[in-house]
Amino acid sequence: MKHGLSKKSQTFLENLRLYLFSNGKDEKEINAIVEELEDHLMEAEARGKTVDHIVGESPKQYMMQLSNEMTTDTKTWVKFIILILFGALSYSILTNAVNGQLSYSLLEILGSIMISLIFIIAIRSLFKSVAANSLSKAKEFTLFYVVGLLPIALFVGLFYFNRLIETPIFHFGSIGTILAVVLTLGFLIGMSLWTKTWVMLIILALLVFPDFLFRYIDISPETQLILSTILTFGGISLYLYVNHKMSKQQTN
Amino acid sequence: MSSTQMLKGIIDGCILAIIHEKEVYGYELAEKLEQYGFDSFSEGTIYPLLIRMQKEELVSSTLKKSTAGPKRKYYTLTQKGEDELQQFIARWEKLQSNVNLCLRKQ
């Protein structure tokens, strides 16, 4: 259906979808308006009009106009927030349990929640600004990468603060640790079946796998840290990007 | 004042009038408006308005198969929309005669 459209119109529709999604709009409404505009653009282009004629001088302003009239569906975003929060928790439990018994300080628990929330807000504003302003591919990629690295930087910060400041520590013990791991794995599999997406398992595998790999390869710890960071967050960015492209193709 | 600013509110009434005439889809509606001389604004402007009118239950939409392939959204007036159109016509007539009086017999 879409191949009849000019590149510029296609880009506009893609950006509109991303913008509305970042604003937490109802998915059904997003699909409805994107389809309607696609139909309109096809007919307009067949008669020699361009996307500017339909959207006006400022696509950003037009996107805002549409967004203002549409229903915000916070449920989708709450689902994402829960998914990311529990994803971070699962990661922490799995990696720590590999190294022994689980124990967390109060600062670690609160800090991790904060970092997850900051990451969610950063991703959301990133999507919005990429959609509304037409940036070059290089700039876009850099932004995605920087935001991808943000949580790592914050977690490193938390790691050091945790050594400096003493807060109460919760110990799990050996039975508690096993229980936590079983619960986490159960939760992950259940979540993947329920959401019909393996995103959490894939991302967690990307996070845990490099560390396992480097246990068997003899390189310096510094190189290890850098390589595993690049592998993990490069892998996640790539996965999200491919996934985003694929879901767009499906809806069209 | 630009004519775009003057058009705000008035264009809503015109959209209602066009849909009242005949069931239309988005492109048709934009084209009709252009034919009537509203060519200063971009065609896409109708969609935020249509979304709002649907929320206010002035218009309703149905999806129908089009010859081109994808389903097309056709708009019709609801009873509330019909009433709103009648009120708009009354308001417009009053406004128009007031403006004309102002301009001609100062």
Question: What multimeric state do the chains show?
Answer: heterodimer
CATH architecture of chain B: Orthogonal Bundle
Helix and strand composition category of chain A: mainly alpha
The total number of structural domains of chain B is 1
In what range is the share of β-strand residues of chain B?
15-25%
Overall, the morphology of chain A is: elongated
Number of E-type strands of chain B: 3
Low-confidence stretches of chain A: none
Number of domains of chain A: 2
Distance between the termini of chain A: 7 Å
**N-to-C span of chain B:** 21 Å
Cα gyration radius of chain A (Å):
22 Å
Pfam families (chain A): HAAS_TM
Protein name (chain A): HAAS transmembrane region domain-containing protein
InterPro entries (chain A): HAAS_TM
Keywords (chain A): Membrane, Transmembrane, Transmembrane helix
Outline the fold blueprint.
The complex is a heterodimer of chains A (252) and B (106).
Chain A (H helix, E strand, L loop, with lengths): L6 H16 L4 H20 L4 H5 L3 H11 L4 H25 L4 E3 H27 L4 H28 L4 E3 L1 H23 L3 H17 L5 H31 L1
Antiparallel strand pairs in A: 1-2
Chain B lengths: L2 H5 L2 H12 L2 E2 H10 L10 H10 L3 E7 L5 E7 L1 H26 L2
Antiparallel strand pairs in B: 1-3, 2-3
Give a verbal description of the structure.
The complex is a heterodimer of chains A (252) and B (106). Chain A is 81% helix and 2% strand. With 252 residues, chain A is mainly alpha-helical. Chain A folds into two domains: 2-69, no CATH class; 75-251, no CATH class. A two-stranded antiparallel sheet of chain A has the order 1-2. In chain A, helix 5 packs antiparallel against helix 8, helix 5 (74-98) packs parallel to helix 9 and helix 7 (137-164) packs across helix 10. Chain A is elongated and about 70 Å long. The model of chain A has no long low-confidence stretch (mean pLDDT 82). Chain B has a single domain (3-104), classed as Orthogonal Bundle (Arc Repressor Mutant, subunit A). Chain B is 59% helix and 15% strand. Chain B has five helices and three strands, in the order ααβααββα. Chain B has helices at 3-7, 10-21, 26-35, 46-55, 79-104; strands at 24-25, 59-65, 71-77. Chain B has a three-stranded antiparallel beta sheet with strand order 1-3-2. Chain B is globular, with a radius of gyration of 15 Å. The two termini of chain B are 21 Å apart. Classes of the chains: A mainly alpha (252), B alpha+beta (106). At the A-B interface, helix 2, helix 3 and helix 4 of A face helix 3, helix 4 and strand 3 of B. Chain B: This is PadR family transcriptional regulator. Chain B: It comes from Neobacillus novalis. Chain B: Residues 15-87 form the Transcription regulator PadR N-terminal domain. Chain B: It holds the Pfam family PadR. Chain A: Keywords: Membrane, Transmembrane, Transmembrane helix.
